[in-house]
Every structure is written in C-alpha cells, then in structure tokens.
Design goal:
By secondary structure, the protein is α/β, with parallel strands linked by helices. It has nine helices and seven strands; from the N terminus they run E-H-E-H-H-E-E-H-H-E-E-H-H-H-E-H. The strands form two sheets. Strands 2-5-1-6-7 form a five-stranded parallel sheet, with helices on both faces. The protein has a two-stranded antiparallel ribbon with strand order 3-4. Strand 3 and strand 4 form a beta hairpin. Helix 2 packs across helix 5 and helix 3 packs antiparallel against helix 5. The longest helix has 25 residues. It is globular and about 50 Å long. It starts with a strand and ends with a helix. It binds adenosine-5'-triphosphate. The site of adenosine-5'-triphosphate has 17 residues, from helix 1, helix 6 and helix 9.
C-alpha cells in the first residue's frame, strides 16, 4: 500500500516521515530527495533539461542548481516544465523501489508537490501535514537560512491548502511534537489495519 505524505514547504513532512520510519514494516520514499538525485544520474532527465533550458544547465556533468533555480524562480511555466520532466522519472524509479519492498505493510511516499506532479495518482491513501503559514515560513527561513521572499515564492507555487485538504484522507496538525506523535500513532494503527485488507 502506498501512502502519500504531503504538505506545504516547511510544514514538517520530513519530521513526520521520520516518526513513521520508527515503525517496523514501514518504509519511506522521499520523492523530493530522489528527484534531486535523479536530476544528476538519469540521462533521460539530463537530455530533456538541456533541450528545454540549455547547455548551461549542467556544469562538469553535474546539475547547475543555481542556474536552473534562477530560471524557474518567479517563472511558474518553467517550473511546471521542469516538474513534468523530472517527476515521471521519479515515478518510474519509485516502481522499482516498491518492488524491492513488497513485504512492507506500507510505503510512505513523501512529496512536497504530490498533487502538482500528479503523484497522488500512484497513492492508495494520502496524508497532508497542516501547519499555519506564519509558522512554516519562520521554520523554513531558520532551517534553510533563506529570505522570506524565497520561501514565499516556493509556497506560492504550490496548490492551495484547501485543495490539498479536500483531496486527503488524513490531516496531521503539526503544532507541537508531542501532539504530532500521537496523531502519527493513531494513523499508523488505522493504516496497519487497512494494509492487512489490501493484500
Ligand atoms: P520541505 O517541504 O521544505 O522539505 P518539510 O515539510 O519536510 O519541508 P521539515 O523539514 O520536516 O518540513 O520541517 C521544517 C522545519 O521545522 C525543520 O527545521 C523541523 O525541524 C522543524 N519542525 C518540524 N516540525 C516541528 C514541530 N512540531 N515543532 C518544532 N519544529 C518543527
């Protein structure tokens, strides 16, 4: 069973995925991390990026992150093109990962842009993390040493919170670590029962 885990920038997906990771028989696939790795290792992605964004997108065979970021920063159309190049390959890579972990009760598919990349379609159930906007901005600025403007731009390129909530089966309110932990435990108990019926 594939459980999508999404939420806005800095909402706490990775923190919550780490809590799920403590359960036996659960495995985490971080699509955001895999996407970054695949951008460097997949020749299919590389040639499409060069075709769309030019030779400068790679330097010494490594993704030129700052160049690419400068192109997509403030340009939603270009960001969508990049997503449409990278995420189909991530989904293919995930199929391989899934086959390696067939014995697990469920797989958490962590992805900041689960709906935007249409990866919700490969999930059997979806959890969205909710954290108030001002808290997310503060936590992300602190974590990434980035400006409010940078964080707000990334946030503005994601689906609205409302639309995510309407398409989700569970919502975790990530206020305090203790309350979050008990919500994770409760959802895990439900998912374990669901997974048993899934086979
Ligand atoms: P991104 O989409 O940018 O990858 P994310 O949704 O994975 O972000 P995290 O990296 O898990 O978010 O959390 C953002 C920051 O907030 C981190 O520095 C994390 O330690 C902190 N954080 C997460 N949850 C809590 C919490 N309940 N209380 C305090 N700090 C938290």
């Amino acid at each position: 069973m594939v459980v999508g885990l999404t939420g806005g920038i800095g909402s706490g997906k990775t923190t919550i995925a780490a809590l799920f990771d403590e359960f036996e028989n659960v495995v985490i696939y971080n699509a955001d991390v895999e996407a970054k790795q695949l951008m460097n290792s997949s020749s299919a992605i590389k040639s499409k990026i060069i075709e769309q964004f030019g030779e400068k997108s790679f330097l010494n065979n490594q993704l030129n992150n700052s160049y690419l970021a400068s192109l997509v920063f403030n340009n939603k159309r270009k960001l969508d093109v990049l997503t449409s190049i990278v995420h189909p390959e991530v989904k293919k890579h995930f199929q391989y990962f899934k086959n390696l972990h067939v014995k697990k009760e469920y797989i958490i598919y962590e992805n900041a842009i689960l709906f935007e990349s249409k990866s919700n379609l490969i999930c059997d159930t979806i959890i969205t993390v909710f954290t108030p906007l001002d808290v997310r901005i503060k936590r992300t600025m602190l974590r990434d040493h980035s400006s409010r403007e940078e964080v707000e731009f990334r946030i503005n390129n994601q689906c609205s919170e409302n639309s995510k909530h309407l398409q989700s089966n569970y919502i975790i309110h990530n206020n305090t670590k203790e309350l979050t932990q008990s919500q994770v435990r409760r959802i895990h108990n439900i998912l374990t029962k669901k997974a048993a019926k899934f086979d």
